[in-house]
Amino acid sequence: MDLLEGDWTKVKGGFRGYRFVWITTSTGRGIGKLGTGVDRNPGEVHVDLSGGLVAQWPPEKVRAVLQWVLNKHGHLTRLDCALDDRAGSVSLTTIKDAIAAGQCVTRAKCWQKTWSGLIHEGTSTGETVYLGSRQSQTLLRIYDKRLQMQSQEGLDWQDYGIRWELELKQDRAQLCGQMLSYLDDTLWLEFIVGVLRSHVDFRDTQRDEEEEYRYRAPLLDWWATLTEGFRKSRLVVEKGSQTLADVKSWLHHSVGPLLAVVLERPDGPDYLQRLAKAGKKRWKTKHHRLLEQSGHNGEPAAVRTTEANESY
Length: 312
Description:
single chain; five-stranded antiparallel β-sheet; 11 helices; 38% helix
């Protein structure tokens, strides 16, 4: 918990066979769970960190956590890595057409596509192409993150594009984590693009050609441009917009005891009222936006923003 930081609260119930579980409440985007107390090894700890949580960490923190896990002889069972084509230079249609034409060179045996939409409005809310199976150690998801964010009424949805998301499990997650733990973050993109291309390539070939030729055929122009663009882009740490739920959680865990002390004083309630009025005079745009996002009733909207508008 000290390593991961944030506020952790012990809750009732178990977690994947562990008797005791703590949940982080330090962010409105994503969640972290920590389980312990398993009978076979009381000192064992299992941690599950969602992408929404880890995506906000700076690279040095990701590296520090990975190094800690490996130094403790721990192992990774799953690790997700995403590359964003923010310019939308390659459409899902182009990708699907290439797969159908036999121009997808991969060891994966199957692919599928899913589509979702609103019944009454008749509009699409998303489409995803899968390369590989959920049982394999590598699964690639390709989907329109911009459309997903727009359907969720997320702010700055225009900044998103087509997302290429690798889900690595077991041995491949462990190996990827080992590499990221000591590589400088300037080399992360090049490494992840290499992992992506080891799973799939799009080449100027046909399905009935010899396997040896298929793997040596020239890259399709759009694929060469896209992967080179990924390599040249920079890492973007995504920031989750603060919600009223975040503020309440911070108040509860960080200053709740101190507020209780103030309220014990005879002038406590009046003092807090004066403090709130004085604070309101210092509101900035982010405070008004927080109130608008919360709809004045504490219900946070689904929001995701980024630091930069990169082409990739």
